């Protein structure tokens, strides 16, 4: 139920001038009626009948089953406002039937509400000034990163930021620290980190997060992490096939690379941010994907060329565990040795190819500017790819921001034009050789979208003469 849908009678008392959170102020007694039940075996049946007749309170924050303070050992089911224990004419038929049958007794009930009973929305509505009412929404949306709640307060809410932070902390048990981003739009660092202020709790941004069955530990103030992109991460790494090689150019702490490694995909992962690189190394070890994922800390443009060359010269091989399990109790020693030999013989080696199948470029603000690094990246290796072999040129998965237009087709055409300009080769959506797929990811601002453009490197680019540096 939205805060606006809570009946006025159940809303907390209002104090628009509160400067420091006073939890004791939020107390209220609501006069209701209740059905008292001494035979606990009847509770489920009574509750079902009352629910069908809409006779109980239907507000998630209020528990309708309570102790009966007038009858020791009995329970009460709270009835909705308008049902008066002393006025049978107000009773729904279900209530009348239950009372007349002797299954229950009706009685007045004083429902005592305190700060702990109201939601974050309810409390903020009661303390934020009237001048903010036109905003229609309380500032309760936040990103949850480990034990940290990260909010972006709009200007009008900044004078009340400590109040907002404390209420958010109180009402979200898994949150220990509340921070607010303090930079103006356009002042982000090259590492996509941001200045922040602590609104509530300790200044502790060392977090542990879980995504795609993987665990990551990092300092949220020093690396980039967006908890809203988990679905997008999975969409891409689940498209990788076992045994493929992937070049993750702007890997961050590894939300693509580490889950891909768990799927037995060979990943060369890189990030320029030393803190991201350290967290990436930790994630590789922590999630036991060392055999499939390695980490680098290089400029992305150099990494594209260096990783491509390193792979060609030093592909890896991994001896996979056997699918034959030797039971703990295998009978005789001869039987055990036989099973162990069979298990060892069944193990297969997964060999890394000499060329990448995918390049991931997840730096939406500037990744497109790195496309020139693909000029001549496979120069002299034409014999390794189609049409000489069945191997197609690799995919580039480019994340980028795009201005929002009235017609989506204009956005897609402009994306292709921008890619072509930076890549130095023509990329068209109707080119069957490039398998172009431009996918909308999310709206990041009223007039800005995030897309993932996937396309194969054009042969004219991949095999071109490398520019002289």
From TrEMBL:
Keyword Transferase among record annotations: yes
The reactions it catalyses are:
guanosine(37) in tRNA + S-adenosyl-L-methionine = N(1)-methylguanosine(37) in tRNA + S-adenosyl-L-homocysteine + H(+)
Its EC number(s): 2.1.1.228
A Gene Ontology biological process term: mitochondrial tRNA methylation
Quote any Pfam family the record assigns: TYW2_N_2
Into which EC class is this enzyme placed? transferase
* Domain (SAM-dependent methyltransferase TRM5/TYW2-type) ranges: 142-459
- Briefly, what is this protein's role? Specifically methylates the N1 position of guanosine-37 in various cytoplasmic and mitochondrial tRNAs. Methylation is not dependent on the nature of the nucleoside 5' of the target nucleoside. This is the first step in the biosynthesis of wybutosine (yW), a modified base adjacent to the anticodon of tRNAs and required for accurate decoding.
Q: How does it assemble?
A: Monomer.
Q: What is this protein called?
A: tRNA (guanine(37)-N1)-methyltransferase
Organism, per UniProt?
Answer: Exophiala bonariae
Q: What is this organism's lineage?
A: Eukaryota, Fungi, Dikarya, Ascomycota, Pezizomycotina
**Gene this protein is translated from:** TRM5
